[in-house]
C-alpha cells in the first residue's frame, strides 16, 4: 500500500479547476465587454461627461471603445493580483500544505478572497470604460464584495461563527447593498458610505484581533474615529453634522460580535504593512486624479487614477499574504508554523 506521502505526491491536483474557471470567466467577460462596446454602450450616467470633455477622474472622455482608456486598463492589475492568488492557492493543494487557516488551499473563503480580488478589475473596468449607470453600480458592488471579507474574517473568528454563518452574512450584506445602491443610490437612501465604514470597521476588528480584552471591546470603536481622521473626516465635522455621520456608530459592531478572543495569531511584518502602505499611498495619489486638481493632465499617458488601481491591487496582494500568516494557538496542539507552510507552497 502506498504511503501517505506517495499518495499526496501522485494524486492528481484538483485545485486547478478554480483557476481555470476564473480564467474562463475573465474570457467570457472580455468577449462580452468588447462586443458590447462595439455595439455601443448606450446613454451615459447623469454624472458623467460628454465625449471630448474631461472626466471626473481627469482623463479625457474618448469616443472609442473605452471612455477612459488608461484608467480602464489600469484595472488589469487587480486581475493579475487575483489570478496570482489562485495560483498560490493551487500550489497549496498540490503540495498538500496543511490548511491551518481559511486562506490556505481550496478553502471556500480563500477562493472567495481571490475571486473578489479578480472581480475588482472587471467591476471598475465597466465603470471607467462605459460611463453607464450599470458601470457605476457594478464598480461599487465589486468594491464592497472585497472590503467585506477582511473584517468579516476577523469578527467571525472572534464570534465563533461557522463557515455557513460567514457566507450567509456576507451574501446578505452584499445583496442588500447591491439592491440598495441600484434602487436608492450610493448611500442606499440612508446616508451610509458602506465602503468607507468598512475600512474603519476593518481597522477596529484588527485591533481587537490582536489585543482582544473585555475592556478593549468597550472603547475599540474609537479606533474608527482615528481612521476617519486619516481620510479627512474629523471629530469636529462629525459633531457638526451628526446626521451625516451616523454610521460611525457601526465602529462598535466588531465589539458586539467579538465575544471571544481569537485562537490564532498573525504576523504583521511585512505583508500587513505592505497592504496598508500601498493603500495609503494609493489614496494620496487618488486625491490628485480628479478633474479639478492642478496636477490633472487629461491627455497624458500618466493618469493618477490608474496608479490608484495598480497600487490598490498591490494592497490586495499584501493583505492576502498577511492573512496567510495566521498560525493556530489551539491549546490542544502545537502552533503551526505558517512561514514554513507558505515556503512549502512555493517549492
Could you give a short description of this structure?
The protein is mainly alpha-helical. It is built from 15 helices and two strands.
Describe this structure in words.
The protein has 347 residues and is mainly alpha-helical. The chain has a single domain (59-345), classed as Rhopdopsin 7-helix transmembrane proteins (Up-down Bundle), CATH 1.20.1070. Helix content is 62%, strand content 1%. It is built from 15 helices and 2 strands. The protein has helices spanning 4-10, 16-39, 69-73, 76-94, 108-130, 133-158, 163-184, 194-211, 214-219, 222-230, 235-240, 253-257, 271-286, 304-323, 338-345, and strands at 264-265, 327-328. Strands 1-2 form a two-stranded antiparallel sheet. Helix 8 (194-211) crosses helix 10.
Portion in beta strands: under 5%
Major sheet summary line: 2 strands, antiparallel
**Order of the strands making up the biggest sheet:** 1-2
Helix run count = 15
How many angstroms separate the termini?
27 Å
The dominant shape is globular
What's the CATH topology name? Rhopdopsin 7-helix transmembrane proteins
**Average pLDDT rating:** 91
Unreliable sequence segments: 1-15, 331-347
Binned, the helix content reads: 55-70%
Please compute the radius of gyration using only Cα atoms.
Answer: 21 Å
Would you list the SSEs in sequence order as H and E? HHHHHHHHHHHHEHHEH
- Main CATH class: Mainly Alpha
Structural class: mainly alpha
Our count of domains comes out at: 1
CATH architecture: Up-down Bundle
Tell how many strands the DSSP assignment holds.
2
